[in-house]
Input
Amino acid sequence: MKLSPMKPSHLLGDWTDRMARELARRNSRRSFLARLGGVLAGGVMAQVLLPVSRVYGQSQELSLKETGDARSCDYWRYCAQGGPLCSCCGGSYNQCPPGTEMSKASWIGTCLNPADNKHYLISYNDCCGKSVCLHCTCYRFEGAKPVYIPGKANDVHWCQFNDSASVACTVAIVMGVAD
Amino acid sequence: MLSRVTALGLTLAGFVPPVLGASYSAATNYVLHCQGCHGADGVSELPGAIPPLQQMGYFLLVPGGRQYLVQVPGVAQAPIDDAQLAALLNFTVRRYSSATLTKSFRPYTPEEVARERHGVKDIGGARRQLVAAISSQLGVHAWTPQARSPGPITGEASALVH
Output
């Protein structure tokens, strides 16, 4: 799906409305996965394309104590995750898989780390440029809002501003302590 | 159908967004409600789509601009109360727009935020008028969004066929 270019004469007046509409129209990963599931159930074989080239950037997270399985949707960082876990898709909880690049925009929420009982700021960035990863799809909604509040929505395609709008998976990057 | 509605109701009843129940510092609220698009330093990686916060001071110098900064959807709809939003605005203006801020700046108050945050219907029209006023009164060309098309979705089809 490709959007028509914005018309300069309407840019400012329609910008906010367009953002919300486009996000809502383009961004139902769940509906895509539902359709995909229907296709798979119909007998089409699917092979996940694992990323092949490079890792985008290195994590600059602060050091923190954490426990649990980062490949499980129950992991503390994923309290508002909206999409496949990159830790199951060739990346990690805070690094995109090789061959993808991190979205240039994201939404940021908070999650409680049970290891130290502190709330942390978590940036949910999509990893862009590859087929959607079919492993470890994870949807949780602590602090998330519907797409008509796009800045707080976990069901938004944050890759829409990157060179490729395809979303492979989503990372959960600790930005700091929420205090 | 009823069971779905009931299930939804139970889900919503048990849903307590931590952001709404928490009271954070202005710096933390900036990260939570602004940084995802505007970046850690107030300059987005999406310069054609997201305005730089360094220009907020210009808006404070033209009639209606002060109110506009409260009424921008991302500001007005931030899920925090009026006092936290006033603190967030003051923090943001001072930290990111010091180069365009004058000594005449009066901090936002919770009462002012409560009065203004839901006061405009045509936010795009308001911005157009303010950008024109900034241009004519200050001789500065404030940021305007650039025409662009989002990148193509190239990968999803291949997930179906491989």
User: Anything to note?
Assistant: The first helix of chain A runs from residue 11 to 26. The first strand of chain A starts at residue 82 and ends at 84. Residues 1 and 26 of chain A are 8 Å apart (CA to CA). Residues 1-18, 20-28, 30-59 of chain A have pLDDT under 50 and may be disordered.
